[in-house]
Amino acid sequence: MDLEAVRTFVAVADAGQFQEAAVELAVTQQAVSKRIAALERNLGVRLFTRTPRGAQLTIDGQAFLPHARELLRVADRAVASVRAGRRPLRVDVINSRGAASGLMRDFHRAHPEIDLDVMLLFEMDTAVAAIRSGALDASFRAVGVPGRPLPPDIESVRVVDEPLQLLTGPGHALAGARSVTVAQLTGHRIWMPGIVPGTEWAAYYDDLVAEFGLTIEATGPNFGSDALLDTVADTPALATFMGEHTRLVWPADHGLRRIPVTDPTPVYPHSLLWHRDNPHPALATLRAYLAGTAADHDGTGTWTPDWTPHWTTAP
Amino acid sequence: MDLEAVRTFVAVADAGQFQEAAVELAVTQQAVSKRIAALERNLGVRLFTRTPRGAQLTIDGQAFLPHARELLRVADRAVASVRAGRRPLRVDVINSRGAASGLMRDFHRAHPEIDLDVMLLFEMDTAVAAIRSGALDASFRAVGVPGRPLPPDIESVRVVDEPLQLLTGPGHALAGARSVTVAQLTGHRIWMPGIVPGTEWAAYYDDLVAEFGLTIEATGPNFGSDALLDTVADTPALATFMGEHTRLVWPADHGLRRIPVTDPTPVYPHSLLWHRDNPHPALATLRAYLAGTAADHDGTGTWTPDWTPHWTTAP
DNA sequence: CCTTGCCACAACCAAAGGTTGTTCCAGTAG
DNA sequence: CTACTGGAACAACCTTTGGTTGTGGCAAGG
């Protein structure tokens, strides 16, 4: 299938005849005739009935037409996604099920007119480099990790604190609790196979362990969140941490429990990062939106590492 | 943009290297290299960073990738829409805002696994011919019009009665009524510029006029339903009929009123038409679904023309 | 330092896809 | 009845695209 042929097909369908479509496309009528013939040959159906006064869509052609239009739309969007200058706003949300992802969904609902490309960049260094190069517009990250200062041309603002919850299977000792304190977690095995040394979230959990003496195991290969949930559901002695806003796609009958943690509640601090000189108009809209959602912040009873940036009052 | 190049791009992104992608696509590595280079040249961005151990997506490449996948998906669906044998179920709903269209939306929600192509065929003759030729699987129509019998190989069953409502602007004499009787409508001008002589709905309205002595004007060119609604909203002396299930896309503040009609309520009878020998598996599902929705039928207090087929009890 | 694995470049060739010129066909006017 | 008009298909030709084979460059690893 050739997109040029599809474009020709739509032009002929709109014009009602080959000649006019040919003028529109700036080719000869014979070229249009050839393109349509080739498309019909590839698809194995006749798309137009040719008459001496033009071309009329067959039933097959009518069925194909909306798909053809959609195809051209999607192609245009694809090209636009990498068009220099006026491309969609590119925002990195680390992973597709976290709080940042939810924020971007809400932002999209609030501003459906803004074209977005949500991306998943694993490494913070990559994200920062991409922001500095202009290839990325913004990233949600935890910033302030000791020894890894942000370059001066990168600005950041803390936008959402995500409370961590304990996730257990039905057989876990704490499965029945409506909430647990951090002190109650000492001695329980908490398994987080996704943690990669050197990342900002590794630093976060290192601090959490150091502060409260928890037992967090990052051992074993990470087979993905499905495997993690599977294991947690089936292993009574195992639990894991999970962001409060993290969406699980999981059959309800596995009996996984989400248990709030208190005294204090560990919260994961998400900041928005962007380049000082980024001119993308939608970036300002996003920042304004996030400033609005973050207005009702109250840090009482929560914990974050020392190195996390302070909340600032919106101007 | 060339779909083959996009396909190649996705293959390379998945494989992580040109060579493996080349094997998958059954071409040489050099061909893959050329295709990617051409795609990059067309888009104006670099999609991969080439290393001696493979190819890695750039940020632009990562942004482009989901659009590329979507493009291939849509292309596949487009091809499938005209594929002989296992193409989607094609159902004609006459116009996109009527009761039949709503039924098909509900059917799609109930059976999202069934691929559908909803079509809009103006003429009944066209629809019947298409059904007989196998190019169309089903059509919603009012059947039984005198002098235009269905061919014996076309089966039909009445599936939904759509009550007609009076649509008026805020200044109309009946605008404040909670409901009106057919008798109250005599003398009021009812404007239906969409009616085309010779169609089954023209026959319906002819019978309606003959039965109750209404004043229905079909004069003037039809500039589309937007223009119709515009005129009705602004003209106190004008009203029109509209199906109860017809969805209006209209700013709420224009003050259009939908007023139920009683004593009796004129209902427009939609039947499903299909070919006796049509083997499409989804057609049976659709018929079963419609038989289910039509179960709660009660014709008391309604009117349809004499020639409309009777409701049959589902087997 | 050499081997290995992978990608880019060059030369070549077949085929796709464009152009011009022409034919065919069905309404329509004379 | 015939000639004309407008529109699509066919034929011949040519350019350009996109494939192949052959070769060179480059970084990682033994």
From TrEMBL, chains A, B:
SUPFAM superfamilies: Periplasmic binding protein-like II, Winged helix' DNA-binding domain. Residues 1-58 form the HTH lysR-type domain. Gene3D superfamilies: 3.40.190.290, Winged helix-like DNA-binding domain superfamily/Winged helix DNA-binding domain (1.10.10.10). Signal peptide: none annotated. Keywords: DNA-binding, Transcription, Transcription regulation. InterPro entries: LysR_HTH_N, LysR_subst-bd, WH-like_DNA-bd_sf, WH_DNA-bd_sf. Transmembrane segments: none annotated. It holds the Pfam family HTH_1. The keyword Cell wall biogenesis/degradation does not apply. PROSITE patterns: HTH_LYSR (PS50931). Belongs to the LysR transcriptional regulatory family. This is LysR family transcriptional regulator.
